[in-house]
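Q: What would this chain look like folded?
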Amino acid sequence: ILNLRRNRINFIPSAIGKVLPQLKVLYVDYCNLTILARKNFQKMNHVEKIFLSRNQIELLDEETFYDLPKLMHLQVDNNRLKILPIDLFIHNHQLEIVFLLKNSIEEFDDRLFRNNQKLRHLRLEFNNLQKIQFNWSTFRKGIRVNFQKNECINADYGFGTAFSENFEQFKDLIEENCK
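A: My prediction, written as C-alpha cells:
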C-alpha cells in the first residue's frame, strides 16, 4: 500500500512503478491532481485499487489506465471530469467497482465498459448527465448502477434478483429522459 493522501502533490511520480513493482493499493486522494495520463501508472502491473477522490482532475487520457491489467477498484469521485473517453477501461478486464460520482460528466455511453465483464458496481450520481446511451441487449445482470441526482435521471438500480422488473423501469426512464 502506498498512501500519498493529503500531500498536495499535483502529479503522480512516474518512478513509483519501478520502486514498488509489487504495489497493489494506491491512495492519491485529497491532493491537487488535475490531469492523469498513462505515464502516471507505468510499471504498476499489480495495482488492484486506486483512490483518486477529491482532487481537481479535469482530464483522463484515453490510455490512462492501459497498463493496469489487475485494476479491480477505482475511485475518481469528487473531481472535475466532464468527459469519459470511450476506451478508458478497455484493458481493465478485472474491473469490478467504479466510482465517478460528484464530477461534471455530461454523457454516459455503456461502451465505456464493453470489456469489463466483472463490473458489478457503478456510481455516477451527482453529475450533470444529460445523455445516457445503453445497448440494452448486452446489458448484464448483477450490476448496481446509481444515477441519482443527475440532469436527466434520478435513479438508483440494483439489477440483482428483481432484475427484469427493475430493468424495464430503468430502461423506460433512460429512454424517456436521457436521449
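The CA atoms of residues 78 and 102 lie 5 Å apart.
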